[in-house]
UniProtKB/TrEMBL annotation:
Its cofactor is [4Fe-4S] cluster. The keyword Nucleotide-binding applies. Belongs to the Mrp/NBP35 ATP-binding proteins family. GO terms for cellular component: mitochondrial matrix. This is Iron-sulfur cluster transfer protein NUBPL. It holds the Pfam family ParA. Keywords: 4Fe-4S, ATP-binding, Iron, Iron-sulfur, Metal-binding, Mitochondrion, Nucleotide-binding, Transit peptide.
Length: 204
């Protein structure tokens, strides 16, 4: 999605240098293993991998460190919350009931480990036919909004189900860079602004 692949180089301090594109430094387990190899780690192996990605990477000065985790409440989330101070968590979910169950558990887990939940993002919220412009809620309407009310959280924004998002993501050209004036890009930018607004200012 960021048009990055390959093995990270090592710095003079023997730290991995993150791969860079669009002005964003990225590190992933996908850079460290074969492209088709599955990551089937649990427990101590997960904690070791997270420690490597957090503390053995030459991140340099950062405005924000964003950690994208799998859905749910497993070892990854717990290990991160126990290893580094987290300014806030953002829960992303489609509006369908089955996805909202995991989203609800995720929000409650972060609250239990005293990580502020900044809000929810409703992904794939609506599909608009490119020909007739009819809007269809394929995954249901406003499920994440109802969950936000239940949890007393804010909705940070909605991301539509749109072909442009899928195509630009698959080609490694994020829509906020390749089509910055599109409605879809503006949806992402509004959400980013909402997240930043809820965070403490970065340390200088």
């Amino acid at each position: 999605m960021m048009n990055l692949k390959g093995n990270p180089e090592l710095s003079q301090n023997n730290l991995m240098r993150p791969l860079l594109n669009y002005g964003i430094a990225c590190m992933s387990m996908g850079f460290l293993i074969e492209e088709t190899a599955p990551v089937v780690w649990r427990g101590l192996m997960v904690m070791s991998a997270i420690e490597k990605l957090l503390r053995q990477v030459d991140w340099g000065p950062l405005d924000y460190l964003v950690v994208d985790t799998p859905p749910g409440t497993g070892d990854v989330q717990l290990s991160i919350s126990q290893n580094i101070p987290i300014s806030g968590a953002v829960i992303v979910s489609t509006p369908q009931d089955i996805a909202l169950v995991d989203a609800h558990k995720g929000a409650e887990m972060f609250r239990k480990v005293h990580v502020p939940v900044l809000g929810l993002i409703q992904n794939m919220s609506v599909f608009q036919c490119p020909k007739c412009k009819h809007r269809t809620h394929i995954f249901g309407a406003d499920g994440a909004r109802r969950l936000a009310q239940t949890l007393d959280l804010d909705i940070l924004g909605d991301i539509p189900l749109h072909l442009n998002i899928r195509e630009t993501s698959d080609t490694g050209q994020p829509i906020v860079f390749s089509q910055p004036e599109s409605d879809e890009a503006k949806a992402y930018l509004r959400i980013a602004a909402e997240v930043v607004r809820r965070l403490p200012p970065p340390l200088k």
